[in-house]
Amino acid sequence: MFYEPLKNDHGLPFNPFKACVVPRPIGWITTQSHDGIVNLSPFSISNQVAYDPPFVFFSGSGFDVPEGAEPRRKDSTVNAENTGEFVWNMATYDLREQVNISSSPVPPEVDELALAGLTPAPCRFVKPPRVAESPVSMECRYHCTVTLPGRVAKSVHHLVIGQVIGIHIADWALTGGRVDWKKIKPLARLGYLDYTYVNHVFEMTPPMRDGRGMIGEPARAGGGKKATAPA
Fold this sequence. Notes:
The chain is mainly β and 231 residues long. The chain has helices at residues 17-20, 75-83, 96-101, 112-115, 181-184, and strands at residues 24-25, 27-32, 38-43, 46-51, 54-60, 85-90, 120-121, 130-131, 136-148, 157-169, 174-175, 178-179, 187-189, 195-197. A hairpin with a 5-residue loop joins strand 2 (27-32) and strand 3. The chain is globular and about 55 Å long.
């Protein structure tokens, strides 16, 4: 089949686009307003965009507003821009119910972290708390927002990019000095109302690497030049 997204002429009962880019890691974002109100929200459009130095992003749509009214952005976007800080927390299968609760459409003055029964933990460099129950949290300094146009106010997306300046990893989430995804079971979004989580891991060495180290690491002693990571 073939269809044009702007025409939405796929002829299917549900739009298949989101189901075609999967799985998508969920960025569980904590921010804090200048008034000290904590916000926690999951974003299924989220990922890393660089690693030296590391940057991550989350992208949120707007809200339905009456015709002629000013578009309203997500609280996470507003707080990150206004304060210059946010925290990227890893969502997991074991925390799936709390992730779902934190997506509730509540007013800005409601603390979703408390609403979901989660524990705020202090960060080293930023004011927003991290989710204590999350195995991985990244303290981020706001870098920029890329606004993507939408056909209606709700579909305008604000892609927020932040530089990672501190990373918290739970001791139990490490095995042999490596992050253990099978223990963590990271939660990811599929299409429709479907989710998945990591429960199977396999290794595959790129041909150009020739077994000489992992991405971001120099070649091992005696291995010649530093291997270049594929795009």
